[in-house]
Write a structure and sequence with these properties.
By secondary structure, the chain is of the alpha/beta class. The protein has one domain: 3-Layer(aba) Sandwich (Rossmann fold). The chain is 40% helix and 18% strand. The protein has ten helices and 13 strands. The strands form four sheets. It has a seven-stranded parallel beta sheet with strand order 3-2-1-4-5-6-11, with helices on both faces. A two-stranded parallel sheet has the order 7-10. The chain has a two-stranded parallel sheet with strand order 8-13. The longest helix has 21 residues. It is globular. It binds nicotinamide-adenine-dinucleotide (NAD). The site of nicotinamide-adenine-dinucleotide (NAD) has 29 residues, from helix 1, helix 4 and strand 5.
Length: 316
């Protein structure tokens, strides 16, 4: 099987590439190494694969996919991970997020149609549930009311994927990821930036009183969920939550980091951000029953694994 992955040099993408190469699949990555965070980190993420015969890297913007001749091959599937992430920056850069995430995705679908790729797996986000009170969030919640520009782009892409797949006859599976963490994590994400600050004796700024909650999901579990979605063929279009299924407060997260970094954090409290949900919590029943998805890594174990990776990275 030959799989095309957009955004394959990023956090989730590079973990996925490693897993799929180990399964014997051929992988082509399209990534433009954008400046959202250092491209050096992304090059380091994929460094180990560069000598692998079954790995191909194409450094282009996804907007150019339909008009390039550099992406060759007969692909059995496309996994679409490329996007600008992060809720907070999207508040300041609404138009840029729309242009990259929505218009970029439109071009990815145009490429899929032009090249008759039979299936797309899309990286959606728990943020599209907004602040829905129907907790734990299940896939049928309607209407969806995202509260940030980033989340809105993800909802538009899901809707576009459903529409295009029906019209142009390709399978479309949308996976709503819940706060992914683990090795090669994005430096803007809280577990990473908090760890950096704890180790450097710098204060951590907490938005709100520390009671906001997240359903944190270890990246290896997410990668297995994506693999299960690759194999899934019961329906032509479908949506699944990929989360652990348990929510932890911000203060609990900091305490768990302190435990595994063996160091106390210095805390500063500031106002919460209205575009961020108070609590995210995945109902994983559908993914369990239909996709055979089970997240094995509990939060304490996952944070321990992350901290080991992080401390080791800081030493080198
Ligand atoms: N990390 C999470 O907690 C989380 C949660 C929900 C959803 N997601 C989604 O999962 C996907 C992967 O997230 P991640 O955390 O690995 O992010 P990431 O930023 O590490 O990876 C995204 C990759 O896409 C690439 N990219 C960006 N714009 C591009 C463009 N125009 N053309 C080609 N490549 C481009 C980037 O260079 C980067 O390597 C994203 O779609 C994200 O929105 C992530």
């Amino acid at each position: 099987m030959h799989v095309l992955i957009t955004g394959g040099a990023g956090f989730i993408g590079s973990n996925l590439v490693r897993f799929l190469l180990n399964k014997g699949l051929e992988i082509t990555v399209v990534d433009n190494f954008d400046e959202f965070y250092s491209p050096k980190i992304k090059f380091a993420n994929i460094h180990d694969f560069l000598n692998c015969k079954k790995f191909h890297l194409i450094n282009i913007d996804m907007h150019n996919l339909p008009n390039t001749s550099s992406v060759n091959g007969k692909f059995d599937m496309l996994i679409h991970l490329a996007s600008k992430g992060g809720v907070r920056l999207s508040i300041k850069q609404k138009e840029i997020y729309h242009e990259v995430n929505v218009e970029g995705t439109r071009q990815v679908f145009n490429y899929v149609i032009k090249n008759n790729i039979p299936k797309v797996v899309f990286a959606s986000s728990s943020s599209i549930y907004g602040n829905s009170k129907e907790l734990p969030w299940h896939e049928n919640i309607s209407p969806l009311q995202p509260i940030s520009p980033y989340a809105f782009t993800k909802l538009l892409c899901e809707q576009m994927g459903m529409e295009y797949s029906k019209k142009h006859n390709f399978d479309f599976i949308s996976l709503r990821f819940f706060s992914v963490y683990g090795p090669h994590m994005r430096p803007d994400l809280a577990l990473y930036s908090f760890s950096e600050k704890i180790l450097n004796n710098e204060p951590i700024r907490l938005f709100g009183d520390g009671s906001s909650m997240r359903d944190y999901t270890y990246v290896d579990d997410i990668v297995e969920g994506i693999y299960n979605a690759i194999l899934y063929n019961k329906k032509k279009t479908d949506i699944f939550n990929l989360g652990y299924g348990k929510a932890h407060s911000l203060l609990e997260m900091v305490n768990t980091l302190e435990k595994h970094l063996n160091k106390k954090a210095i805390l500063e409290f500031t106002n919460s951000i209205k575009e961020e949900a108070d609590k995210t919590w995945a109902n994983t029943e559908k993914a369990k029953q239909t996709l055979n998805f089970i997240a094995h890594t509990d939060f304490d174990t996952g944070v321990e694994l992350f901290c080991k990776w992080f401390v080791n990275k800081c030493k080198n």
